[in-house]
Amino acid sequence: GRTPLLDAAYGNTAGFLASLSRPANASRIFYGVMFDAGSTGTRIHVYTFIQQGAGLPVLDNEMFHSVKPGLSAYADSPGTAAHTVRTLLKVAKKTVPRLEWKRTPVILRATAGFRLLAPDKAQALLRQVAGVFEESPFLLPDDGVSVMNGTNEGVLAWITINFLTGHLYANAKNTVGILDLGGGSTQITFLPKLRKTIEGSPGADFVAQFEVFNSSHELYSHSYLGNGLMAARLATLGALGAEGLEWRLFSSSCLPSKFSEEWTFGGLTYHLRGASDGNGGYKPCYQEVLTVVQGVVHQPLELRDATAFYAFSYYFDRAVDAGLIDGAHGGALEVRDFKKSAKEACSEMAKGGGGVVSSKPFLCLDLTYITCLLKEGFGFKEGTVLQLSKTVNHVEASWALGAMLDHFYNLKIH
Ligand SMILES: Nc1ccn([C@@H]2O[C@H](COP(=O)(O)OP(=O)(O)O)[C@@H](O)[C@H]2O)c(=O)n1
Predict the structure, then answer these.
(1) What is the pLDDT of residues 346-388, one digit of tens each?
(2) Atom number of ligand 1 nearest to Cα 45
(3) What is this model's ipTM?
(4) d(CA 91, CA 199)
(5) 154 ligand 1 Cβ < 6 A
(6) What are phi and psi of 340, to 5 degrees?
(7) Which of 156, 342, 357, 365 is the most buried (most CB within 10 A)?
(8) 8-state DSSP, 165
């Protein structure tokens, strides 16, 4: 919600007069617009910040709006992408006072959907977006429209969550790790407790540094392209990278036996089917999803006794679908809760039941994949507690706020 401070600055004459008599170092309000061009949707975040003294600002308000599908679905009609962005920009015009437009930056970062596109198609889409921003009344910074790399995506989400939970102070020792499950990619980021977590990591793209308050932090962070939930569905079915096939027909023991449907991701349509009667269920499904995780996902040893992880995006959505948490509030659950609901969803599916699986045919597959990713992939114990959140203090749990802070405060992520 809007604070009295914001109303005082813009809403009424008394506030305006008060602001005239404010000392020079009084708090300053500024705005920023961040677009998240995700693989499954496009979202706009309009932030209102208050700068009080030195250091990071206070976030006063976030306006958020999202549309489906993602821009990568328009790879062959970039004009439609421009239209999507132009429509969302109206939210920014309503939220940011007119006098502030020309100094308010508007930025778009694309994620896994764009990383999976042919480079020339991705470039054509980005040019369309940049054209819309240029003709808008907002400020388009250099490099304002680009594809973000996966490591930054994880680091920026970590910065968002730790900023919103109040862990981003100077010399903060207690921080929280993040698990982000997108459509195309999945990210894990945490501040290691053990030196050997960094030393034993598979490579440079598992380690990231950033600076805030003149102090440097070193994080374990990695993005697995192709391990987002939608990409993992395709990979489980053996269909990821099958674009050249004339018949895109795939079957899985993770889908209901009577299931036979067209399914679209990233602008491509696939025909998906369940396994023949009697062959579906948690066990055969787990073996299928294992092929997408095993030998792919690295296990940092210290996660075996990990605490304090926030999980959002599709982790949150599927926990809601499974009835594990309430969609309005989120909540804490254990890794074993995902396993238990995966087993339930898969056995209901195998029985041909008319319960939740009949309206959500992918529930067995999705929950089994999430269970496998957490346990066999990252190596979390079944008793590890995850904090499932869509928002933290009414702000979207996503990399977008971190990216906005990085724009204004140059966090020197590398
Ligand atoms: N602000 C946001 C952004 C994403 N999400 C969730 O994240 C999911 C996938 O994110 P995405 O489409 O950006 O996937 P990637 O392109 O990052 O792989 C969405 O379907 C939402 O469930 C959200 O809840 N709130």
Answers:
(1) 999 998 866 767 789 999 999 999 999 999 999 999 999 999 9
(2) 1
(3) 0.91
(4) 45
(5) no
(6) -60, -45
(7) 156
(8) T
